[in-house]
Write a structure and sequence with these properties.
CATH topology: Rossmann fold
Radius of gyration: 15 Å
Distance between the termini: 36 Å
Bound molecules: S-adenosylmethionine
Number of strands: 7
Structural class: alpha/beta
CATH superfamily: Vaccinia Virus protein VP39
Shape: globular
CATH architecture: 3-Layer(aba) Sandwich
Length: 183
Amino acid sequence: MNNWTFFREAVRNFRSTGAIARASPLLIKRLIEAVPSHRPLRVIELGPGDGCITTALLDRLHPGSTLTAFEINPVFVRRLQQLPDSRLHVHSVGAERLSEHFAPQSIDFVVSSLPLSMIPQEVKEEIIRQSQRVLRPGGQFLQYQYALQDYGLLKDSFNRVNVSFTLANLPPAFVYSCSLGLS
Ligand SMILES: C[S@@+](CC[C@H](N)C(=O)[O-])C[C@H]1O[C@@H](n2cnc3c(N)ncnc32)[C@H](O)[C@@H]1O
């Protein structure tokens, strides 16, 4: 899928997409740099869109890993389902239902590019709660955002929150790396 197709979907569904361009390669690199490649991991991706982070994750992840994606836009879901990688599982349901699919403390990383600032407060709190529930001790919740609106929510939800900033995206973005401890 090219940038134009992503732009068209973003304009059609602006409230749920929350961006008019995909994450840049440098932002993606920053977002997932903490994900190790040397051992099998169980990873969840929230809001993969057309798969720009998904493909970078699949390139990075150990062959024994799994990557489960939750995406609500059916055009993006069809696109993701065409990615030829048996480690990838795509669910066409909202991220607020993620814990239906996993045991507590069974996931190493939740990688999210959900447009948190556009998601109703009670829904995003539920997504964070469910992410906490499925993450292993020491597991991480990784998220980028164009402003710091949800820094407070993440600070209240996780024991450790690191924030970095990158100009290498349009618009520039903040990258959060959050854990419940023991990282
Ligand atoms: C900003 S786009 C991110 C696209 C791509 N991952 C990137 O970083 O460029 C946000 C994506 O989240 C999806 N989305 C929005 N709300 C969602 C929800 N509750 N559950 C799952 N996906 C959602 C949208 O359909 C869209 O594809």
